[in-house]
Structures are given as C-alpha cells and as structure tokens.
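User: Is it possible to get a 3D structure for a protein together with its bound compound? The compound here is adenosine-5'-diphosphate. I've pasted both below.
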Amino acid sequence: MTAIEISGRTYKYEARVGSRLLDQAGPTIAEVLRRHRCALICDTNIAPIFSERVLRSLTSAKFQATLITIPAGEESKSLEQVAAICDEMIDAGLDRQSFVIGLGGGVIGDISGFVAAIFQRGIPHVQIPTTLLAMVDSSIGGKSGVNTSAGKNLLGAIHQPSLVIDDVDLLQTLPPRELRQGFAEIIKHAIIADAAMFQELDGLKPSSLLGKQLAPLVKRNIEIKAGIVAKDEREETGARAILNFGHTIGHAIERAGNYKMLGHGDAISLGMMAAADISMKRAGLPKKERDAIVDLLRRFELPTKLPNEFSREQIFDAVTHDKKFESGAVRFVVTPKIGSAFLSSDVTLEDIREAINALGDNNR
Ligand code: ADP
Ligand code: ZN
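Assistant: Yes, that's possible. Here is the predicted structure of the complex:
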C-alpha cells in the first residue's frame, strides 16, 4: 500500500492505493476520523459484491454504519435521490458528528459527496472508488453534484474528501467496457501532463494491465490530477481547465447521444481525436504525435471513429451550447506537444466544426 498526500490551500488528505485494502477500511478510516456513526452509500450492483466486507470492517473498528443502497445508473444522480438519502440518514439517527462513505463509481462518488457537503451543513466524506475512472479521476478534486432536467452536474458543491481508499482488487469485477472508460482519462493525463507515461502506455498491452500492476498507474494518475487541482481548486485561474482536454467536444458527443450511446471515456476518446487535430492546426502539434495519440486510443480499444448514427450538426450545436462558451469567446484546450497542454483563445468555431466533420473519417 502507498499513501499519497493530497493537499491544497484549504485541505489535506490521503489517498491510499494498493491491494487488499477493502477489508481494512474500518481501521483505516479510524486513523483519520474520530466519529462513530456513518452512512455507507452504494448502488444496487455494488451492494451484493462489496458492502458486506466494508460493513464487517467498519463494525470491527467500532463504527456504527447504516447501509444505503440506491439504484445503479446515472438516473440516480438527482436531487430527489439526495433528499431520499438524507431522510434515511436522519431516520437512522445520523447527525453533525457523523460521516459519509461513498462506495462505488463516479455516480456514487458524486452523489455521496454532495450529500456529505450539505447534510447538517457539511460532514466528512470518505471515498472508496470501485471503478478505474473514479480512482484516477472523479474521486480526486472535490467535485460533487447531481443532474437536473436541464443538464448534467448543474447542481453541486466542492467538498474535498477526508480520505480516499483505492483498492485495485475491486477492479476485477469491473466489466471491460467500464475499465476502458478509465483508460481514456489516463491517456488524457498522459497527453496533458506526462510524456513519459504516454511512452509507457504505448508499450503496454491493456489486457496485461490487471491486478497489482494497476496500483502504480493509479497512483501516478492521482498525483497528476491532484497536482493540477491544487493549483486551481475552484477553477478560478484556468490551471484546472487543462483537465478538460477532449471534453468540450466529448461532452457534446455524449449529449448528442443522449448519454446512452457511448460511455464517458468513449466520448472523450473521440473528443481527444478532434482536439488533437485542432492542436495540429492551432498549437503546432506534430503530425507524428497526433498519430501516436490515435494509435494509443485504438490500442486501448477506445473509439476513434464516430458511430454513423451520430449527427455532426447535433454535436456542433451541443458544443455551442456548452456553458464554457456562454460569453461568446471560444476557449479550447490544446496540446502543442504530448505531455503539455494549455487553454487557447486561437481556436475558432470553424476549427471545431471541421474537426467534428473529420471524426467520421475511416482511414485517418
Ligand atoms: P463511473 O462514473 O466511475 O464510470 P458508474 O458509477 O457510472 O461509474 O458505474 C459504472 C457501472 O459499473 C455501474 O453500473 C456500477 O454499478 C458498476 N460498477 C462499479 N464498480 C464496479 C465493480 N467494481 N464491479 C462491478 N461493477 C461495478
Ligand atoms: Zn472526464
């Protein structure tokens, strides 16, 4: 097990990464929190696989835990579900001295974090991510929230966790499709901040990356994300914006597909393809490096061709409705060279349209 210390101006906590950590969750949390009652929040897929072990470990460490299970799926990320969880917590006698544990993927991390942020004006949050995506991305950075009928993540709060426990053994039951979604964010981190990791990934077979070998990779990605977040926790200076590489067009693709056709990582894979093309045109990214990005995405079985069912017009419309474009000015994350990225004002809507149109091209 390795402990990564994550800190910013106003927070400091640890992410513990390794194998066989789940059965130690109780004693590990006891090192950090001197509180007794907690809510363990998970979804209907996670509860039968992992909740017993966590509950047993919590009990062994003298915690009094209430298990709250919500339906699996993005639909659960709603204000109604938040209210239902809070009601259950109040009924179970939880109060200001209690804390929340989120055991699950990004959905559970986001909703449990939001509950922790608002319950009794805020109580501590412990994250136990169960997806690769949540381990390397969403559990780090303090973003929490829910969707509304008008869009995704429109309500939320920044609430940093008190502890993150990343047990890579939990990834063994994760369907390959879900594993792939996490690799998309790992490749993003390599492109924007770590050329050496890009090289290493390039020499790997994804199928060989199982079990213990994942721990060093998870650790490295947490460090990358935490380092960027620490510079700009509340997205005020623009430093955090580079994490949106591939996401402007990626989000638009997700939206055009009604969030059902493609996973988040699949959509940002396509978004990164487009961003690489735009980077070639506007930031001097060498063609060789752009091709290396496409090859790496393919190797991790991420899509590099837009499925035929998608309307390019709809994707472009979704881009222009992105809240980041509200002011009228286009700000777009580009990479001049693998391992670095910046927010550019040189990109035009026409560049974006052109890159979206090129996404269907088979033989590029
Ligand atoms: P993310 O946003 O992190 O990609 P989600 O919260 O949307 O993840 O979870 C993706 C799906 O995988 C959900 O149906 C969830 O219940 C399921 N899931 C999460 N972790 C595991 C796991 N370790 N084993 C099996 N299924 C899992
Ligand atoms: Zn993402």
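The chain has 13 helices and eleven strands. Residues 2-173 form a domain with the Rossmann fold fold (CATH 3.40.50.1970).
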